[in-house]
Amino acid sequence: MSLGMGERKTIVVLGRGPIFSVENINSGKYSLLSEEFDGLVFHELETPDLQGKYMGGFLIDGVVIPRFINKFGLLSHGYYFLIVLFKMLFRRDRFSKIDFVITTNPFLVCFLAILVRALKGSKFILELNGNYASDYNWEMGTATGRLKKAFGLFLTRQFVKLADAVKTLYPEQIKDIAPDLEIGSKVHSFHEFVPVSGLKASDEDQGYVAFLGFPWYLKGVDLLIKAFRRCDIPDSYRLRIVGFFSDEERKRSAKLAEGDARISIEPPVNYSGAQEFIKACSFLVLPSRTEGMGRVLVEAMAHKKAVIGADVEGIPSVVKHNETGLLFRAEDVADLRECIERLVNESGLRQRLSSNGYEFVHEQLSEKVYLKKYKALLYSSLIGR
Known about the structure:
Blueprint: E1 9-14, H1 27-33, E2 37-42, E3 54-55, E4 58-60, H2 67-70, H3 73-89, E5 100-103, H4 108-120, E6 123-127, H5 143-162, E7 165-168, E8 187-189, E9 208-212, H6 221-229, E10 238-242, H7 247-257, E11 263-266, H8 271-279, E12 283-286, H9 295-302, E13 306-310, E14 326-328, H10 333-345, H11 347-364, H12 367-380
Parallel strand pairs: 1-2, 1-5, 2-4, 5-6, 6-7, 7-8, 9-10, 9-12, 10-11, 12-13, 13-14
Antiparallel strand pairs: 3-4
Helix pairs in contact: 3-4, 6-7, 6-10
């Protein structure tokens, strides 16, 4: 059966955003896909100067939502939906034919994808980049949160059934959503794109434990501060926490730190700043309560840095305990403290894990591996067309 792989095909990627820079949407991924595909990438754009930029053969054609509209959630979603739908259906350029429409979350953009599939004959590819069955993603302490989770899971399950192919980040991710589906049917499980070949090994060590990410609670920042303050390690070691946090979250961090001068809460940085931050650390910690993969862990391993991660959801797919990093029992402050102490006090362990992690990401999570698996995902949806 011919899958039509000799001709260039067109991809439309629908993401809700917002995006602040080209790096914010994995420009390297689209440049690589451009060897075989052309495409459009729709997102909410923070600034209009991103509009019309190319990433290889992929054009950014998103939506800048006026601030007065963005203040109202439903109105903002409706504005995005109508503008993107209009742009896709009435194009008269080389992107008017759409072979694949890909969504990066299972909510609003999936409605758009289904409309495009019906009108354009496209194949609908759904990427699941989070664990939508996790209570932590749904404000479960409230009736509203429980209602949101029930409705969100219902929608996710419907869209999984409707999709021509589904991508997960780790094999178990699909089980809580569609337990009847198996990896290898229409479900493909592999890592998210990380440009590991462009991230160089670093032997710089400025004596700090690194954390990079947000949101504050889901990423377990409180757990990390508590564990670090209990560690029996030299006073010269610092904990640097970098991320986009609200004023309230910063106050909570300061309260937990109790004036400990070794702990600093720092503002977010851009992509290049994030890589410089990782390159200079002793090791990186991701103590998440819920996590699809942990991109920052892969980036740290690509810089040849040891890592610690919670043994939750997708993290063990990239961190193999005592091989490519250390895992601790999720939300267990004592266990996290012990892992931090081990990496600070055992330089041989730190070096072994960083070397193993470096080899692992370059062999198993490289751009070449990703591209091969992503193309298999796309072309599998054409079988029987």
